[in-house]
Amino acid sequence: MASEPQLAAVPRWTPSPRRRQDDDEADHKGAADMVSVLGASMRGTEGFPFGSGRSFQPPPFLPPAEAEQPSPEISVERSENDCVAFAVARETSSLRPPDQGVVLAWEDLWVSTAGAGGNRRRVPILCGLNGYARPGEVLAIMGPSGCGKSTLLDVLAGRLGSSVRQKGDILINGRRQKLAFGTSIRAIDGKHGDLVSWNAWIELQAYVTQDDVLMNTLTVREAVRYSAQLQLPSGMNAAAKRERAEETLREMGLEGAADTRIGGWAHKGISGGQRRRVSICMEILTRPALLFLDEPTSGLDSAASYHVVSRIARMARREGMTVVAAVHQPSTEVFGLFHGLCLLAYGKTVFFGPAADTNQFFARSGFPCPSLMNPSDHFLRTINKDFDKDIEVGLDGKTMTTSQAIDTLVNSYKSSVHLAKVMHQIEEIRANNEGCQLVKKEKQPTFLTQSWVLTKRSFVNMYRDLGYYWLRFAIYVALCLCVGTIYYDVGQTYGSIQARGSMLMFVAAFLTFMAIGGFPSFVEDMKIFGRERLNGHYGVASFVIANTLSSTPYLALISVVPGAIAYYLTGLQSSGEHFGYFAAVLFTTMMVVEGLMMIVASAVPDFLMGIITGAGVQGVMMLNGGFFRLPNDLPKPVWKYPMYYIAFHKYANQGFYKNEFLGLAFPKNNDQAGAGAVAMITGEEILKDYWQVQLRYSKWVDLAILVGMVVLYRVLFFVIVKLNEKMKPMVRRLRFRNVERHAISSGH
Ligand SMILES: Nc1ncnc2c1ncn2[C@@H]1O[C@H](COP(=O)(O)OP(=O)(O)O)[C@@H](O)[C@H]1O
Ligand SMILES: [Mg+2]
After folding, report:
1. Mutation pick for ligand 1 pocket among 127, 145, 151, 159 (CB with most ligand atoms within 8 Å)
2. Which of 223, 345, 232 lies closest to 278 in space, CA to CA?
3. Where is the composition biased (Basic and acidic residues) (predicted)?
4. How confident is the model over 104-120, as pLDDT tens digits?
5. Whole-angstrom distance, CA of residue 524 vs CA of residue 601
6. d(CA 316, CA 294)
7. CB 223 within 8 A of CB 453
8. Domains (range + CATH), the chain
């Protein structure tokens, strides 16, 4: 339905629109002209955005008319909907004054990874790249797959993994980025020592990664609305936030799919292209100062690609956003929307400069674009050597292999005016760093608001995801029916002492053990958390609180209903207080297990590995919890101290036992029937002598210790995530220093 107006715009699709023809005309002006054009473009950037007024001029890569109107053809074609969206967008005020953009520059950027096998030589992924991206513009990174586009985005966003090494400078508004650990040491001087912190950095940027990590149970509209509530500043009222979400949905053409569940591997939901657009939606809600997009148009048809990129470009211009996008196979129209182009081939720069000049550069280097061919297809074909038999034909009719073609282009770029201009521009950016304060996002929603929104979202997710709690609830009911019938009406015989002990142990150990069943769903939550955390949507504490609070009602339900079935069928002490305690311990222990699994999830990336690890850890705790081997018999080193005291089973079990046995008395042995006066054994004696339970403190202390563990495990999770964030950069810095020292000592 919603796609109809978009389709209506397609018939005007032409292989070579006006814009490119203009460029072709420019192509014929000759070399001298080209230099003067570039010079003008450079002059156009003077004072931009570093001038005293720090005001926006039209993006220098674009001809002035283009800056106002992306394409005359398209503006005629623009559908009603489009115009409305545009008008609405114009009415909504920007979150950031437009003169506070981010200029990103990188100089001599190298990224390498350790070679495979015994070979210790490092394999370069990016080789000495230079470039910059400015507010109001879209810089496209293009190249064959595997050429390093995602790596370049990762480096710029400060998200490189610890296995790769980086070298070179990354400048944000002319100041060095602290995350660029590999930055060459010579650059650290008084002037550039002013580093940008991690927190400031993630507050500035938004990154739409190559794969979409979304909450599958939500509808598109819900997902974007929750995201808006989480991210948009506290100064904005609820209606404005909702309107921003709707506006963004419209901009990304998602109105038609707004009420469809996102879906995932289990349930088919929206299409791959729509998922891509939902991911983009969530990151452009705040109109971030710096936006990284990794293949935003993959999975989109050519019309959708055009609309998505054109709207992002328009937004960038309107809001003064700096957009860096790795793009895969753009159509001619999409290509025409880019201001700058960074063309990479196997880690080397083939071209960096105004996108409109690429054609000319290729032609001058001996690879003119055949008429009727999409220029971007031509560029990519010329530099793709994955299928090495490919032979390129140069201007003079000579043939060469693709590797030779790439070398020719790389060398041609190195000696071109384009590189000189880039270097000049970077120098200018570097020189103008003073007085350029980094602008933080406007105040985010308060901690309480974020925790509340996250709790709501998580609650809805848990409700809709059958695997999170409902399946467990059903299995628990079935299991408790089994327990209840096996131990049915256990009575108060001598034999019932053992039966009670076993039944309670089963509940404390196995029912809580089953809490790992929700782990796969939790891992999905963690992935979403990971993405949103890196994009600075909210903090770790909000996530922990939200996850704990939202799971509480489900765990309470699971511990009360199936718990009651097992409890009353077995015929344990029937007073409300006793059952209440039983359910409370069961509930708390499940919370402990969930906390334990959170810690496992923070350490182990994959859910299968996580389940195995979690099961192993719990198995060990179960074993030394004081049932399978009595506490006094446990070997003292390790198993008794400290393991016995660490295992939560000890407290759950002892709490259950105290709850059940205290106040009861049992006949001393099985043949009481014949004797007149039956010798009795009290529950207290059983606890002390038989189960070897510590009676110095009451069952409530056991419960309190379990509650303490619930808190402790969550605090531990918080600390691990925080430490991880802090340590990763430090580890990389250390690794880098070692490598650097090694390189210096070996004379490299
Ligand atoms: N952490 C890493 N370890 C080893 N090799 C890597 C790593 N990251 C990227 N690479 C390699 O670097 C090259 C570029 O990868 P990438 O940036 O993902 O390419 P693309 O341009 O398709 O986004 C690929 O050949 C990839 O195998
Ligand atoms: Mg990639």
Report:
1. 151
2. 223
3. 19-31
4. 999 999 999 887 765 66
5. 10
6. 16
7. no
8. 104-431 (3.40.50.300), 447-731 (no CATH)
Ligand 1 mean position, distance from CA 143 (Å): 13
The pLDDT tens digits of the residues spanning 643-698 come to 999 999 999 999 999 999 999 999 987 655 555 667 899 999 999 999 999 999 99
Alpha-helical runs (H) found in 571-698: 576-603, 607-623, 643-646, 648-661, 683-685
Peptide bond into 642 cis (omega under 30): yes
CA atoms within 13 A on the CB side of 363: 17
Q: What's the CA gap between 678 and 668, in Å, rounded?
A: 8
Identify each DSSP E strand in 329-442 by its residue range.
340-345, 348-354, 391-393, 399-401
Q: Whose CA is nearest to atom 24 of ligand 1?
A: 146
For residue 70, the CA-to-ligand 1 centroid distance in Å is 34
Which of 109, 113, 208 has most ligand 1 atoms within 8 Å of its beta carbon, as the pocket-test mutant? 113
Which atom of ligand 1 lies nearest, measured to the CA of 294? 23
> From the alpha carbon of 160, which atom of ligand 1 is closest?
1
* Structure-token pair, residue 520: 């796969």
**pTM of the prediction?**
0.82
CA angle at 618 for the pair 614 and 623, rounded to the nearest 5°: 155
Annotate 177-196 with DSSP letters as a single string. Answer: BTT-TT--GGG-STTT--PB
Query: Which helix or strand (DSSP H or E) is residue 48 part of?
Result: none
Q: How far is CA 471 from CA 465, 474, 475, 476, in A?
A: 9, 5, 6, 9
Asked if residue 49 has a cis previous peptide bond (ω within 30° of 0), the answer is yes
Distances (CA, A) of 701 to 95, 654, 705: 52, 10, 6
Give buried/exposed letters for 339-370 (b at 16+ CB in 10 A, else e).
bbbbbbbbbbbbbbbbbbbbbbbbebbbbbbe
